[in-house]
Write a structure and sequence with these properties.
- The complex is a heterodimer of chains A (about 525) and B (about 220).
- Chain A contains 23 helices and 7 strands.
- Chain A has about 525 residues and is mainly alpha-helical.
- In chain A, the strands form 2 sheets. Chain A has a 4-stranded parallel sheet with strand order 2-1-3-4. A 3-stranded parallel sheet of chain A has the order 5-6-7, with helices on both faces.
- In chain A, β6, α21 and β7 form a beta-alpha-beta unit.
- In chain A, α5 packs across α10 and α13 crosses α22.
- Chain B has about 220 residues and is an all-alpha fold.
- The radius of gyration of chain B is 22 Å and the shape is globular.
- The N and C termini of chain B lie far apart (about 50 Å).
- The chains are: A mainly alpha (about 525), B mainly alpha (about 220).
Chain lengths: ~525, ~220
């Protein structure tokens, strides 16, 4: 299942809608889950006997439990509004990557077995009339392949006249596949690690403690100020839940240093938790409510154990979606927290608030070596909010960047805000065995970025999602751009903050530090 | 049709929607949601953002259909309101854009490779069916008009459960037969988008997760105990 040879798409001025090329992305799909990971999640080891019937029954169950799924499956009129909206279609031209066609892989089976018209026509041998499809091996292959070419980013939903959410169908299909024994290696492995160790990367407590101490030294070296990065500190006011990539991956870790500086300056006590050392919730990606709940409950338990008053989330797109829209439902009520603060809160809301109240000393000229643009992460843009103001998820990160950088440029309007394009690696696709899908899916974002690079001399793109950052550092070089272009939003904040008591550093010194980073 | 549709609506109503999945930016209040839904239902706002061709064809189709159906009220009332007759010269005209928009939608299904790919035979049949209904109606309006008084007597009679004779008229029979067929397949076809849109959680949920708790129907939020 190694990656086959493929051509990296060429960047043009505009994002063109390609002519369809059937089966151009007909691949084996990502690596399949190992038995031990399947077991850890409570799924069967391998493809079960009589899986066809079990899949059909599971589909019936899924529809009974989700109004959204039922409405989405029934309502599509095949108007075609979504057909040119998916980044994977735009980058690959495979028609099964058009959202409606992706849904139809599921819908056609649903129609045959779970609708009166489908069952009736099926008896008459007239399945073809409405596209009724038998559940068989080739359908399963298509499901496994094409439901892992969807990043659940919901761009198509924005343009659907009925708000049909392809991600809900992708999640349902993945959950059915997991339950008949065909899980995806990457996501199940990640979730198993969260169960065993507490985070996606499997960083144990000792390693975490070590990393944080190392970062404290780095900050002290840079600023001359000791900034504590506390772990498991009982009685702290704030529990900060960050994606585990923030603890060591580039450019994530520079963002984490930014959070630490902001929290330090706020004067409010805070802590990380080794139990909830991960903001991500891959249970969402595989559409499995039990995993999602189990992962969410860790955060609740950590908050209770540490006796915190508030929970703040770091820069992670889907984690913020789950935190904002699902956490209360999955693991609530959070009535033991201080109700005068929003539950949960995003680190951007926290920083924005401090900036508004003039509590941070900022020197935006420290970012003068950069012209910055901002990538709206799909889950933040289309599945959450910040600040409780309409469109706050767009304005708050931009306000912060403008406060800490002198040069900021937006990318084209049809590629930002609610119309933002996914980085290409979201929804459980951030794995090397899906590299071709990731490269092609990044085409629209790379096009938009390349345009502002050429027209406005943009040098850096900030993001507030761990997956986006990892995806871009890998994909930018593929498109002939530098992997250093992608930065954490709080890295920019961290650069600009002058800590209380910190001596002004010369610009030369800053240049040196950038070199070291 | 009423039974089937009633069942479907009950089904949508009674199926749980445990998680908040509004597509954001979304309104955070009920009046806001109502406004959003009205903009979707009457203006096809999302479709407008998506594709101007589909939007203009789809919107003209639905608006003309509405006008034409309004005009058909005269067949169901003994004493139809006067304004319907006053509007008739104008509402009658809606039959033309109705036919044009349907033809446009059909043409797109044939011409655009992406739309052709996602169309199944039933999608074409639905358009043919509508075009046949509209054409037969238009022909009766222009050239070969049945005795409309008798048509009115027939339908107002049906409403009182008495059967009056229907004029012996081929186009009328065809027109009515096709309409009955359309109503029959309504609850079993993609026409379910009509009730469906009201229940679509991405559109009809308010973005208020942090203000208002949404407990899980499964655990009933007993995570405390």
């Amino acid at each position: 299942m190694a990656n086959r040879e493929y051509t990296v798409p060429e960047l043009f001025k505009h994002i063109e809608t390609p002519k369809i090329e059937p089966d151009s992305m007909r691949l084996p799909g990502p690596f399949k889950a190992k038995p031990n990971h399947q077991q850890a999640l409570g799924f069967p080891d391998e493809l079960v006997d009589n899986w066809q019937q079990k899949a059909i029954d599971a589909m019936g169950q899924a529809v009974k439990q989700s109004r959204g799924l039922r409405v989405f499956l029934d309502s599509c009129v095949k108007c075609g509004a979504c057909t040119d909206k998916c980044h994977y279609y735009l980058g690959s031209a495979d028609p099964k990557n058009m959202p409606v066609a992706r849904q139809d892989l599921f819908r056609n089976v649903y129609r045959k077995y779970h609708t009166p018209a489908g069952r009736f026509l099926s008896k008459l041998g007239l399945d073809w009339l409405i596209g009724g499809q038998e559940m068989n091996q080739s359908v399963l292959d298509d499901w496994y392949n094409y439901y892992h070419q969807c990043s659940e980013c919901r761009r198509c939903t924005v343009y659907c006249p009925y708000g049909i959410d392809t991600s809900e169908i992708t999640m349902a299909a993945r959950n059915i596949m997991s339950n008949i024994g065909v899980g995806q290696k990457y996501s199940t492995e990640v979730i198993s690690k969260v169960y065993q160790v507490g985070n996606n990367l499997g960083l144990p407590e000792a390693a975490l403690q070590n990393t944080l101490e190392g970062l404290e030294e780095d900050i002290e070296e840079e600023t001359g100020i000791f900034v504590k990065l506390p772990l498991d500190q009982v009685g702290a006011d704030i529990l900060l839940v960050a994606p585990s990539a923030d603890f060591f991956a580039e450019p994530h870790v520079d963002g984490l240093i930014g959070y630490a500086k902001v929290l330090h300056e706020s004067g409010i006590s805070w802590t990380f938790s080794s139990k909830a050392s991960e903001a991500a919730n891959f249970g969402l990606f595989i559409g499995n409510e039990d995993s999602m709940r189990k992962i969410a409950l860790r955060i609740r338990e950590a908050a209770i154990d540490l006796g915190v008053k508030r929970i703040v989330f770091g820069e992670c797109g889907h984690a913020w979606r789950v935190a904002y829209n699902y956490l209360e439902t999955l693991a609530g009520p959070f009535d033991f927290l201080d109700t005068s603060y929003p539950m949960p809160q995003h680190i951007c809301e926290f920083t924005h608030d401090l900036i508004q109240r003039n509590q941070l000393v900022l020197d935006p000229s420290r970012n003068d070596d950069k012209t910055v643009t901002f990538h709206d992460s799909c889950n933040v843009a289309r599945a959450s909010n910040m600040g409780g103001i309409s469109g706050g998820q767009f304005s708050i990160p931009r306000d912060i960047i403008r406060a800490v950088c002198n040069r900021y440029v937006d990318m084209a309007k049809d590629t930002t805000h609610e119309a933002t394009f996914c980085c290409g690696g979201g929804g459980g696709l951030l794995t090397d065995d899906l590299m071709e899908v990731r490269v092609k899916g990044a085409l629209p974002r790379m096009t938009a970025l390349n345009n502002v690079v050429e027209e406005h001399g943009v040098t850096h793109m900030a993001a507030i999602c761990a997956i986006c950052k990892s995806q871009f550092s890998k994909i930018l070089p593929v498109y002939g751009m530098s992997m250093d272009m992608i930065v954490s939003l709080h890295q920019l904040v961290g650069n600009a903050i002058i800590l209380t008591g910190q001596k002004e550093v010369t610009h030369q010194k800053i240049e040196d530090q950038h070199h070291l980073l | 049709m009423t039974l089937g549709l009633g069942h479907k609506i009950y089904q949508y109503w009674s199926t749980p929607a445990p998680f908040r999945i509004p597509i954001t930016p979304a309104p955070s209040t009920l009046p806001g949601v109502v406004l959003r839904m009205l903009a979707e239902i009457f203006l096809f706002k999302s479709l407008f953002k998506a594709n101007k061709w589909i939007w203009i064809l789809g919107w003209v189709f639905h608006a003309s259909l509405g006008l034409v159906m309004l005009q058909h009220i005269v067949y169901f009332q003994q004493q139809p309101p006067v304004w319907i007759y006053q509007l008739q010269p104008y509402t009658q005209l809606a039959a033309y854009p109705l036919l044009v928009s349907l033809s446009g939608l059909l043409l797109r299904r044939f011409m655009v490779d992406r739309i052709r790919y996602i169309s199944s035979p039933s999608d074409f049949l639905m358009l043919f069916l509508l075009i046949a209904i509209v054409s037969s109606g238009l022909l009766m309006m222009l050239f070969w008009t049945p005795n409309l008084y008798e048509v009115q007597q027939y339908f107002t009679g049906l409403l009182r459960l008495t059967i009056n004779p229907l004029p012996d008229h081929f186009l009328l029979y065809l027109h009515l037969l096709l309409v009955v067929f359309l109503l029959l397949i309504f609850p079993f076809s993609k026409l379910l988008h009509a009730p469906g849109i009201f229940f679509s959680p991405t559109l009809n949920q308010a973005d208020n997760a942090r203000q208002k708790p949404h407990p899980s129907p499964k655990t009933g939020n007993d995570n405390n105990g």
